């Protein structure tokens, strides 16, 4: 027995960047809003709350491992066979399963950068190598550069549409052109966590794209538009054998009954939920236009957040926002992502942005 060695852990785990959750609003401080995690500011809808409360009465039992009710609802709602669906603990849980199912040491996982910060983490956990392709100067996916970066080791490519944290989108023609260039044995994951906030009609619905492309998988979540972030439920739409692999690799009983029932109730309350999304989209337009009016350069966003590339001033800007009562998400040295929240929170943010701008 070697001395002081402790359990042997996989070398791949060394140096994994830790996921930085959005900072919470300060408890007991001045009025403070959390605009740092792209959450839905609205509280759960009454019908959804009732379902969750009812399900809470039996959480001494394991949930339905097959998520039968939710799978049936998703199958009807999106017109996809049950065999093409897989659920997980948030779409990040499904994304991790996708990597586990496709990639290991020696393989490459490609994505734009900057994009969703979980991609490098879940890639490194699997032992695969991240290939980060810089966004263009306009903050959008550089699909030509991504296609050119494909090697015979590429196993999975994320296309985050709209992209977190920039809010920028990939449109139908360029996506189709890119997909035509990707070898059929490379899985392309269209991460559509913010799909419901899209108003640009040129942005394709991934579920239409996947239908005749066996190497395309679509990720969706109930965390954002549907407001169930705390319950952890997301899903993938993919052909066999990808969907089957996901069902195999999923953590048994990962999606709680509360989450399953809340997701079904949310799909059934879609009119109300999408009304709320509509209000957030209206606020998004107001925030974007006001920022531009103040002189900021802000990329067109189709998500529930805006992106300000502040470079070296990022941390100072985030501190100024916090002083004004809103917590935003800084990426030091790069920029700040700000979620569209309650009207008052957006006003506080816009006030802070205006004051900061005047100081420049
Ligand atoms: C692009 C993107 N994908 C996936 C997720 C994961 O969401 P969840 O695991 O809550 O479904 C997020 C959350 O921030 C995201 O921004």
UniProtKB/TrEMBL annotation:
Its cofactor is pyridoxal 5'-phosphate. Residues 34-347 form the Aminotransferase class I/classII large domain. It catalyses: an aromatic L-alpha-amino acid + 2-oxoglutarate = an aromatic oxo-acid + L-glutamate. The modification N6-(pyridoxal phosphate)lysine is found at residue 224. It is an enzyme of class 2 (transferase). Keywords: Aminotransferase, Pyridoxal phosphate, Transferase. Gene3D superfamilies: Aspartate Aminotransferase, domain 1 (3.90.1150.10), Type I PLP-dependent aspartate aminotransferase-like (Major domain) (3.40.640.10). The keyword Transferase applies. Residues 1-22 are annotated as: Disordered. The keyword Translocase does not apply. InterPro entries: Aminotrans_II_pyridoxalP_BS, Aminotransferase_I/II_large, ArAT, HisP_aminotrans, HistidinolP_aminotransfase, PyrdxlP-dep_Trfase, PyrdxlP-dep_Trfase_major, PyrdxlP-dep_Trfase_small. GO terms for molecular function: aromatic-amino-acid transaminase activity; histidinol-phosphate transaminase activity; pyridoxal phosphate binding. One of its GO terms (biological process) is L-histidine biosynthetic process. Pfam families: Aminotran_1_2. Its EC number is 2.6.1.57. PROSITE patterns: AA_TRANSFER_CLASS_2 (PS00599). Homodimer. Aminotransferase that catalyzes the conversion of aromatic amino acids and 2-oxoglutarate into corresponding aromatic oxo acids and L-glutamate. Belongs to the class-II pyridoxal-phosphate-dependent aminotransferase family. This is Aromatic amino acid aminotransferase.
């Amino acid at each position: 027995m070697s001395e002081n060695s402790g359990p042997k852990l996989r070398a791949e785990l060394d140096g994994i960047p830790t996921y930085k959750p959005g900072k919470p609003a300060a408890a007991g401080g001045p009025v403070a809003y959390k605009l740092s995690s792209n959450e839905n500011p609205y509280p759960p809808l009454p019908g959804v709350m009732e379902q969750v409360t009812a399900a809470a009465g039996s959480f001494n039992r394991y949930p339905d491992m097959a998520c039968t009710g939710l799978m049936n609802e998703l199958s009807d709602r999106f017109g996809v066979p049950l065999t093409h669906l897989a659920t997980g603990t948030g779409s990040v849980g499904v994304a991790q399963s996708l990597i586990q199912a496709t990639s290991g040491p020696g393989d490459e996982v490609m994505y734009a950068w900057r994009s969703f910060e979980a991609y490098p983490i879940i890639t490194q956990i699997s032992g695969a190598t991240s290939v980060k392709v810089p966004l263009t100067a306009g903050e959008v996916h550089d699909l030509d550069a991504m296609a050119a970066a494909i090697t015979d080791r590429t196993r999975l490519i994320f296309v985050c549409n709209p992209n977190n944290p920039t809010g920028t989108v990939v449109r139908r023609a360029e996506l189709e052109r890119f997909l035509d260039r990707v070898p059929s044995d490379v899985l392309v994951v269209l991460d559509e966590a913010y799909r419901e906030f899209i108003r640009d009609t040129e942005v394709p619905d991934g579920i239409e794209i996947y239908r005749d492309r066996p190497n395309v998988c679509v990720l969706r979540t109930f965390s954002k538009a549907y407001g169930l972030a705390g319950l952890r439920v997301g899903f993938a739409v993919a052909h066999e054998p990808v969907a089957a692999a996901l069902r195999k690799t999923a953590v048994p009983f990962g999606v709680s009954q509360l989450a399953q029932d809340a997701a079904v109730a949310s799909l059934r309350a879609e009119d109300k939920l999408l009304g709320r999304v509509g209000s957030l989209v209206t606020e998004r337009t107001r925030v974007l236009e006001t920022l531009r009016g103040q002189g900021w350069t802000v990329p067109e966003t189709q998500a529930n957040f805006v992106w300000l590339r502040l470079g070296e001033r990022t941390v100072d800007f985030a501190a100024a926002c916090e002083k004004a009562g809103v917590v935003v998400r800084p990426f030091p040295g790069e920029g700040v992502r700000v979620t569209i929240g309650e009207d008052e929170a957006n006003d506080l943010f816009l006030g802070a942005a205006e004051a900061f701008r005047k100081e420049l």
